Amino acid sequence: MADPLTFSPDRGAYVRTNTWLAAGAMAGAMIVLWLIGNPYVWTGAPAGLAAIGIRAWYLASEELTASWAMSDTTLTGPGQRQVALSQIEKVNIMGSFVQIVTKGGDKHLIKYQADPAATKAAIERAMR
Question: From CA 118, how far away is CA 106, in angstroms rounded?
Answer without folding.
Answer: 22
